[in-house]
Amino acid sequence: MTGQPLDGVRIFDLTRILAGPTATQYLGDLGADVIKVERPGEGDDTRKWGPPYLKGKDGQDTHESAYYLSSNRNKRSIAIDIASAEGQKLARRLIAESDILVENFKVGGLKRYGLSYEDLKEEFPSLIYCSITGFGQTGPYAERAGYDFLAQGVGGIMSITGEPDGEPVKVGVGIADVMCGMYATTAILAALRHRDRTGQGQQIDVCLLDTQVAWLINEGVNYLVSGEVPKRRGNEHPNIVPYKVFECADGHVILAVGNDSQFRKWCAFAGADDLAADPNYKTNPQRLAHREALYAAMPSYMKKHTVQEWVDGLAKVGVPCSPVNNLEQVFEDPQVQARGMRIDLPHPQAAEGTAPLIANPVKFSETPVQYRRAPPTVGQHTEEVLREVLGADDAEIAALAAAGTVARS
Description:
By secondary structure, the chain is an alpha/beta fold. 37% of the residues lie in helices and 17% in strands.
């Protein structure tokens, strides 16, 4: 099988919940050996974030929640008590064999275990140490615990999400966590490139709030340029008209007209000759200025066709239009299926023998993503990792287990 970009790279993964595991899962997809360190008997917090849970061979729920499964494939789980002195020594031995450490403890949280960046940087000068927090390593909020919901609130995305007259609304998935994980991934890869060129490791400080502010993108810069605080517009776009959800004959469609040519094509397909001829709607700036009047005039045309008629008809003339799918429809969509966005990986506890997961969206021509491992159970690979990475024998593993330093699944 073709090699992968990160073959030979090892990650000591001290993350849990979503932002950190998203980053390390992606790196695992690229070929890195990700050693996920979990608390004996407990594991990642999200293992309990259900239902739903993966169904076991006896028809009962396992301890593997769908939430946990979503961001932990291509990893090996080792259960170590890093609160113990022996656990800390073991962690250092594994770090010595690793290229990257990723953690999402509170600021200073690993200092008590002797595993902070300051504790490790002299001993391991080539180590890339990525710290993921809610609010960063510095600043007045640094000590605060941070969750996705808080970051969406403090970072402004909720103020521009939701209906104009409704309450602020968070995005339906933990997108601040996910985007923080993506930024962490790219930062780690850049630091790896620097390390490979110079031999020098470094600490990466990435947090939910910073990345949330960064991906305000156009709305953030709209404010910085204009000084006007953006308002919630529901499904409308601040800079493009028409661009929103419309009710049609049998449901709803998204119409996303990106330029004046597309607007003229929509008018032609819809039979809206009056709107095409109206000087108030000739250009996007004019449509923005007359947004309310145009949106008041369009529904009578949109209701003349079904969802499929709009989607198919506008696709033929190059006007972006789509249905609003629920998740059942998403995974039944022929394009989603053609792109292989659902995968099933062998899982030792699953009733069907496999766990259903969402695929990595990146397609490489020469080094394709490989799905080597389903999300592990707590401590599933403790013995395997100790033997392979540290050369531990039966006696050492038994002694570590007897002392409660490690746990075996």
